[in-house]
Every structure is written in C-alpha cells, then in structure tokens.
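Whiteboard transcription, Tuesday session. T.W. wrote the structure tokens on the left side:
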C-alpha cells in the first residue's frame, strides 16, 4: 500500500469515477498536493457496474453543460494522459410519442445547439431514414444527438487516476 501523506490540501474519499475525476481536475488546476483514499480498489463501487452510457441530453442547462464537457474530455483524455480507452460516439435518436415530449425535446435541442452540440429535431420520416427499422405510426417526432455514446467506466477512471498521479496527486 502506498505511504499515506500526513497532510494534504484536499482528501477525497472513494476511488470511483467521481473521486478520480475530482482528483484529476484539482491537479489540473495546480492543486497537486491532494490525496484520494480508496478502501478497496479503484472502480470497486458503482463505477464497476455502470453500463457506460455517455448522454448529453438533459433539460437542465448545468447538467447538459457538464455532460457536454465530459464528452469533450473523454475524446482527448486517452491521448492526454497516455492511457488508451474505449470511447465511442455513436449518436442517438430519442423518440417522442406526444406533443409535450416534443416540446421538451425542442427546449433541450435549443439548449444543446447553444452549447455547441449539434442536436437536431427530426420528423418521424427523418428518424426512420436514419434508422430504417423504426415504427413511426405513433410518433410525433424525434431528437437526434450526435454526441451520445458509451465509454468503459473502469478505463476512464484509471485514465483519470493516471493523469492525476502523473501530475503529483496521491492515491
Ligand atoms: C447497474 C448500473 C448501471 C449504470 N449505468 C450508468 C450509465 O450507463 N451511465 C452513467 O453515467 N452512470 C451509470 N450508472 C451510475 C454510475 O455508475 C454512478 O453514478 C457512478 O459510478 C458513481 O461514481 P462514484 O465515484 O460517485 O461512486 P462509486 O463508483 O460507488 O465509488 C465510491 C468508492 O468509494 C469507496 N469507499 C466507500 N466508502 C469508503 C471509505 N469509508 N473509505 C474509502 N473508500 C470508500 C468504494 O470502495 C468505492 O470504490 C450506473 C450504475 C449502476 C449501478
């Protein structure tokens, strides 16, 4: 086990993706005298079970903004910290079966476009053109999100941990 420092500017408890990300971002801002304590091993908690979906859709500006930031970070993180990882941006189509759901999508789409995410509203026919197996008879429309994707949760945690360690943080 690594020797535990006697003092640290910040102590983070828990080495899941959130703890590793916090340590990495503190180090990026110059707070390298920080420590992460993990009682088991990195990714031992919920992070191990996550499916790894990385959406940007949200009706909250702040949450969408954090998710957008994550997609940008994940696109460059492997190269930045020299830890290859599986991250795929596949895009997604969300289906609306009511006018109210369409309004919700329109609002999210407007926020997304303002944040630089190339979201698009689709008619049922346009959605079917992108995914031919779609049944459209009960659809009002759809939202296309090109940045939606998936990542390996353990790999991204290890990559963040490596990046933090390389900058001087302790785990
Ligand atoms: C089945 C499933 C599917 C999911 N799918 C997705 C998905 O597709 N996309 C998505 O974004 N999210 C998904 N999630 C949610 C995601 O997994 C969690 O939001 C995320 O992993 C939480 O990370 P965390 O670092 O906060 O917690 P955790 O990963 O649980 O990490 C907490 C860590 O703290 C350690 N710990 C606890 N107590 C102490 C202590 N006293 N001292 C030291 N260490 C301690 C634990 O050992 C653990 O390693 C899913 C979750 C589950 C369960």
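and on the right, the sequence the group agreed on:
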């Amino acid at each position: 086990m690594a020797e535990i420092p006697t003092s640290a500017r910040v102590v983070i408890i828990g080495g899941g993706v959130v703890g590793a990300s916090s340590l990495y971002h503190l180090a990026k801002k110059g707070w390298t005298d920080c420590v992460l304590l993990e009682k088991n091993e990195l990714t031992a908690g919920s992070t191990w079970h996550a499916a790894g979906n990385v959406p940007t859709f949200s009706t909250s500006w702040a949450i969408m903004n954090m998710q957008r930031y994550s997609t940008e970070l994940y696109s460059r993180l492997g190269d930045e910290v020299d830890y290859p990882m599986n991250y795929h941006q596949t895009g997604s189509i969300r289906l609306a079966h009511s006018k109210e759901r369409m309004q919700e999508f329109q609002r999210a789409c407007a926020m997304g476009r303002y944040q630089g995410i190339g979201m698009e509203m689709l008619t049922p026919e346009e959605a079917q053109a992108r995914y031919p197996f779609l049944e459209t008879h009960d659809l009002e429309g759809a939202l296309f999100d090109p940045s939606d994707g998936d990542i390996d949760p353990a790999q991204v945690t290890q990559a963040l941990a490596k990046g933090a360690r390389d900058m001087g943080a302790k785990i």
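Someone added at the bottom: DSSP finds six helices and eight strands in the chain.
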